[in-house]
Amino acid sequence: MPSTLARIRRALLASGCGAAAVAMLASCGGGHVPLPALSASIVGDTAGLVQRGEYIVRNVAVCGHCHAADPRNADGPLSGGVAFRNWRLGTIRASNLTPDVETGLGAWSEAEIVRAIRSGEDREGHTLAPVMPYAWFRGMSERDALAIARYLKSLPPVRNEVRNRPSLVYRAARVFALGPARPTAAVAPRPAADAEYGRYLANHVSLCGDCHTPRGGLQQKADLDRPFAGDASSSLPANPSNLTPDEETGIGRWTEDDFLRALRTGVNPRGDSIHPFMPWRELRRMRDDDLRAIHRYLRTLPAIRNPVPEKQAPPPPS
Ligand code: HEC
Ligand code: HEC
Predict the structure, then answer these.
(1) Among 31-35, 142-146, 177-181, 198-202, which is the least confidently predicted range?
(2) d(CA 103, CA 112)
(3) Which residues have C-beta within 8 Å of that of residue 46, sequence separation ≥ 6?
(4) Rounded to two decimals, what is the model's pTM?
(5) Per residue in 86-116, is it b (16+ CB within 10 Å) or e — as a string?
(6) Nearest CA to ligand 2 atom 27
(7) Which of 274, 292, 295 to mutate to test the pocket of ligand 2 (most atoms within 8 A of CB)?
(8) Domain parsing of the chain, residue ranges
(9) Please, are residues 32 and 125 in contact by the beta-carbon 8 Å criterion?
(10) What pLDDT score does 23 carry?
């Protein structure tokens, strides 16, 4: 599966833990993140939490893109198993997120799940492979992460033992260099069709920022000085588009309705269909106000001129 391969390579490089050992030590943290003390005011509302969690998992963060048994059906059971392979990591598989006690999250507390999502630290205190996008989820609110945990706990358990085969390089990195991410926010902005809430969704709940921000340099780090400027030389199966308000190379000439229509139909205003690697089939179920919030946030970004040509299809095998 080339898309997942490309993604992991990028994730590893982006973590700054991929290059030489020295670079790893210089750029990675260490230590542990304490379990969040979930406040009493948010833990009680099970119905509201499960509903919110389902919305995020299925329509906004699209966890099934990686964690579904068959990622082509992101809405299917989240029993994991899809392999991400490369020489740095070895073989890392997406975890079983169903509440099976032995092979999934059945024995985990909600606080442990919240910590894993936002910090990338698992139940035993190990740092998860950075394929899991905790670098972006670290700004997710405690309530949204708890909502995800409560939803995962409500799913039918599926027995599926997922085994990793970490490479030596990666095992060493885990011991000496890799560390969890520190969460940055406890509370989300008030939900509204405005730029502030859009910034929260696009960067910390949905993975728009992860895919659409260009990467560069030796470590292929996300270039946060050029947020959402697209990537003309991406290692992904399609080049993520420039979503800044630049009129020539971004989406500056799109109306808000154009934006909603593109996400809902998978066809952009030029009449081109959007590559299925862009998870529009799931994102299209986002509420109008949430999509509008994201669009209004994108309008506030600096317009960056960055032409992103469509990727040429690979030549047919000879
Ligand atoms: C780009 C792929 C990707 C996406 C998207 C993703 N994950 Fe993961 N996740 C992984 C991989 C791979 C692992 C295994 C990492 C490891 O074993 O070191 C993982 C591990 C986890 C773990 C730790 C489980 C355990 O048994 O150790 C949890 C919890 C988790 N993910 C939850 C989520 C949730 C919830 C979402 C959506 C909000 C999500 N992930 C989105 C790839 C992804
Ligand atoms: C897994 C990576 C990924 C994620 C997550 C993602 N995108 Fe995309 N997106 C892409 C790629 C790749 C393309 C280019 C597709 C093509 O070439 O047809 C794209 C294209 C688009 C387009 C069409 C632009 C044009 O000029 O045709 C829009 C609009 C868009 N994305 C918005 C979003 C928004 C908003 C989010 C978050 C809610 C998001 N994307 C999340 C990868 C992603």
Answers:
(1) 177-181
(2) 16
(3) 150
(4) 0.91
(5) bebbbebbbbbbbbbeebbbeebebbbbbbb
(6) 268
(7) 274
(8) 2-27+45-176, 195-299
(9) yes
(10) 37
